[in-house]
Write a structure and sequence with these properties.
The protein has about 110 residues and is mainly α. The protein has a domain at about 40-110. The chain has 4 helices and no strands. It starts with 14 loop residues before the first helix and ends with a helix.
């Protein structure tokens, strides 16, 4: 599916408002694939923040926890940027953020 240039968040406005409008558009009007992708990204973003907090409260320290969280949020920010601008670079950076999170959480599980 091609993301249309004329959707809420596709033009004008500052960063947080523009990206929020783009993600909401993707969830509600972006079609099944875009909607599911955006919903999964939101769930992973919330899950990574909860995991980071739970592990910190439990006294777990380490770079893998933080790097996993950073990877998920980098993927989400670049996913929103892709919806905002439609640039291939945003899509590539989203994939790199996801790969960073996957590697980090894999290393975290290996450490147990």
């Amino acid at each position: 599916m091609t993301i249309p240039a004329s959707h809420p968040g596709g033009a004008g406005g500052g960063w947080p408002a523009r990206s929020l409008a783009s993600v909401l558009w993707g969830l509600l009007h972006g079609g099944v694939a875009v909607g599911l992708h955006a919903a999964l990204g939101i769930v992973l973003g919330v899950w990574s923040a909860v995991l980071l907090l739970r592990l910190r409260v439990a006294g777990r320290r380490g770079a893998w926890i933080v790097l996993g969280w950073v990877g998920v949020w980098a993927a989400g920010a670049n996913g929103a940027s892709f919806l905002d601008f439609g640039m291939d670079l945003s899509s590539a950076l989203m994939a790199l953020g996801f790969a960073m999170a996957l590697l980090s959480y894999g290393m975290l599980m290996r450490a147990d």
